[in-house]
């Protein structure tokens, strides 16, 4: 499901490009080539803070690099390498082929080419992974030289993705309703979680997240009611996902709710709060911290707009929290 792209600074031009738009973020509102277009609109929903990091790939000989770039989708991981070391990783958020934007960002090389196959990334993190480790985990031969840009599919990528915990909790591949329905029927909670199992869960998460947040910049947390950029929210199963039946999962309009990463996800998962008859309630969990107590007191009694239709799942959670 999650693929990996190897991006190495193969020449001076690509090394400068990395510096320009990956190490330094780009201000989206300053980009004149996409101003007023649908691209700018879509990027604004992904990057409400206006700052984005972006990479690009040239078409390559016979379109080879373009063909690699076309394998990418939202949620894939890009590994950036310099001097035989992966020093940065990022998550693909948006893809667009646009020579005008590429020229504006990076200009042209001496042959008049520009990296027009563009990918935007987020969740950029410092890494320190030797190329040899990645090669070994991907099952590539020892000493394998990375070309300028190359994408490795799920089976090869999985040991790196899971081993270094590179997957995003915000950006997922796009999953259709039909695919979701197929996938959730195959989820088997009695089996150990192998690569295929993880792929299914990832598809499940991706679909639920799109159901809740697609196209939205801001959404309300179901517990605290604060409105946050969707990057600060997760699509949480109301009933613990490992106890959900296939039938629960097929009820995708009611099984999930938005929870903020600024606290409510933890509070709900750890059963400090639940929702009873539409209102947020504090459970009997022992609270030794006065600061935590004051947060819980503020939440108590808030009306949860996600209750309707989801009562049975909240009831399950309430019983789990031994509220009664
Ligand atoms: Zn919250």
Describe it for me?
- A hairpin with a 2-residue loop joins strand 4 and strand 5.
- The chain is of the alpha+beta class and 324 residues long.
- Strands 2-3-6-5-4-1-7 form a seven-stranded mixed β-sheet, with helices on both faces.
- The chain is 35% helix and 23% strand.
- The mean pLDDT is 92.
- The chain has two domains: 4-162, no CATH class; 177-320, no CATH class.
- Helix 7 (177-186) crosses helix 8.
- It is built from twelve helices and 13 strands.
- It has helices at residues 12-23, 38-46, 64-69, 99-106, 131-137, 154-163, 177-186, 195-213, 246-250, 264-269, 290-299, 311-320, and strands at residues 4-8, 26-27, 51-57, 77-82, 85-97, 117-130, 149-152, 218-220, 227-229, 233-237, 256-260, 273-276, 279-282.
- The chain is globular.
- The structure holds zinc ion (ZN).
- Zinc ion binds at residues 221, 223-224, 226, 260, 263-264.
Percent of residues in beta strands: 15-25%
Radius of gyration: 22 Å
- What general form does the structure show? globular
**Helix segment tally:** 12
> What number of domains?
2
Heterogens: zinc ion
What is the end-to-end distance?
Answer: 41 Å
Low-confidence stretches: none
Strand order of the largest sheet: 2-3-6-5-4-1-7
User: What can be said about the biggest beta sheet?
Assistant: 7 strands, mixed
What is the typical, i.e. mean, pLDDT? 92
Secondary structure class reads alpha+beta
Fraction in helix: 25-40%
Total strand segments: 13
Instruction: List the secondary-structure elements in sequence, H or E.
Output: EHEHEHEEHEHEHHHEEEHEHEEHH
Organism: Natronospira bacteriovora
Protein name: HNH endonuclease
